[in-house]
Specification:
Length: 445
């Protein structure tokens, strides 16, 4: 087996290297001062790489200034440009920062949620078009030593892929493999792959499928792990720990991001805790009775407690060894232990006892107060077991990426929002309070 190492500024990812923690800014990238200040807070909180959204050419110049200001202060943390569907922006950013994230689902193809009946020739010509668009990016990356993340999102798979493989974890893995083929054909190997979904089981299945296909091809590229749109608070942390933690327990994952709908500085401490907790887990921490996991651990630290219990549960659930969870930690009341068990069961989709909230971490595209909207949505709609509600930061990517949510509120410009039923917008662009009222009417019929 060949282990491909990937070089991102002063960081090396891959076999024998430590797992690297990263996070993403949510300031407006064009606001250079605010973004530099946020980068510094994130780095102080443990971010070892910082990702910044670059939606258009306008922000490319801002990216250059952000990097210059950080380097002038002696801060050499690698920067990553997050580019979704603009090859020209990706090429320009690749000449500036150490890594660029692209999304094969929308780099060339589009997701219109239509079934395409493509012949073999048509399918191949779509791949050829993708390669033609990607070639200049590979050349820029090679010239500057820039790495790429091929970042697959379950919510933004191309119609071409979904029509051929279904809306499945395998479709996600195949989307990555198509890019892997194109990269290798163009002699480009400085790349990392990620398979993100808001559903922990989907994210794990896609990552394991990709990992197995890479093993069969005899070259393992580094993998970035993350559960996207995980939400906030204990729920967001538990979902991340169940997915990321379980895969780390299997020895898979080279860099991680815990996505939270909170300020970015909150993400990295939990990510570092998760990595440490996985190393400290012992066989004596748990046993299985029937199909119930009994997680017994005397752990006074809240984050360590939830990270360990969720990672162990995600790991055993994936192996179909458990159907229920009981948690016993004397440092917390039985009600708190039971509530954590219910939150983990929900994250693993073993038992849906409350509303499932899906919310993105927000980024430079967000123009409304997503944290406050999420808090209001959670307060109003907490008690609808089985209902999936999304709160997303932007109308550009939010609707596509809100996964299998039944309804959602999506941020628009100037603090306004829109209401969605599935992927369909069912309101005008309206103030948030009106959107909440409309959502309530829709849910209550
Ligand atoms: S959905 Fe959220 S994280 Fe994704 S691009 Fe929009 S604001 Fe950013």
């Amino acid at each position: 087996m060949k282990f491909q190492h990937v070089y991102i500024g002063n960081i090396t990812l891959g076999e024998g290297q430590p797992v690297v923690v990263q996070s993403m800014t949510n300031t407006d990238t064009a606001n250079v001062e605010a973004t530099v200040a946020q980068c510094k807070r994130m780095i102080a909180a443990g971010a070892e790489m910082v990702r910044i959204t670059v939606p258009s050419m306008k922000e490319v110049e801002s990216l250059r200034q952000i990097k210059e200001q950080l380097r002038a202060e002696g801060i050499n943390t690698p920067l990553i440009a997050d580019v979704h569907f603009n090859p020209k922006v990706a090429e320009a950013a690749a000449g500036i920062v150490e890594k660029v994230r692209v999304n094969p689902g929308n780099y060339v193809d589009k997701r219109n949620f239509k079934t395409l009946d493509l012949s073999e020739e048509e399918y191949q010509s779509s791949l050829d078009a993708m390669e033609a668009k990607a070639k200049p990016l590979f050349e820029t990356c090679k010239a500057h030593g820039t790495a790429l993340r091929i970042g697959i999102n379950h919510g933004s798979l191309a119609d071409r892929i979904v029509s051929r493989y279904g809306n499945t974890p395998h479709a996600m893995a195949m989307s990555a493999i198509e890019w892997l083929d194109i990269c290798e054909k163009n002699d480009f190997r400085n790349m990392v792959f990620s398979m993100k979904a808001s559903n922990v089981n989907t994210m794990m299945a896609a990552t394991l499928d990709l990992y197995q296909m890479m093993q069969e091809r005899s070259t393992l590229y580094p993998i970035h792990l993350g559960v996207t749109e995980a939400g906030n608070g204990t729920e967001g942390r538990v979902k991340s720990a169940a997915g990321i933690g379980a895969l780390l327990m299997m020895g898979i994952g080279n860099t991680i991001r815990v996505s939270l709908t909170e300020k970015p500085e909150n993400e990295t401490p939990f990510a570092h805790t998760l990595i440490k907790v996985i190393k400290d887990l012992k066989d004596t921490d748990y046993h299985i009775t029937g199909q119930t996991l009994i997680y017994q651990k005397s752990e006074p630290d809240f984050d360590r407690w939830i990270a360990g219990a969720a990672a162990m549960s995600g790991y055993l659930n994936y192996q179909q060894k458990i159907k229920d969870i009981r948690i016993e930690n004397p440092h917390f009341s039985q009600a708190e232990n039971d509530n954590l068990a219910a939150t983990i069961l929900q994250a693993c989709r073993l038992k849906m006892s409350k509303t499932e909230f899906i919310s993105c971490p927000s980024c430079g595209r967000t123009q409304y107060d997503i944290e406050s909207v999420l808090a209001q949505v959670k307060e109003r709609f907490a008690h609808y077991p089985g209902l999936k509600l999304a709160v997303m930061g932007c109308i550009v990517n939010g609707p596509g990426e809100m996964a299998d949510a039944d309804y959602g509120i999506v941020g628009a410009t100037n603090g306004l929002a829109a209401v969605y039923k599935g992927k369909e917008r069912v309101s005008e662009i309206i103030p948030v309070q009106q959107a909440l009222e409309q959502l309530q009417k829709l849910i209550e019929g």
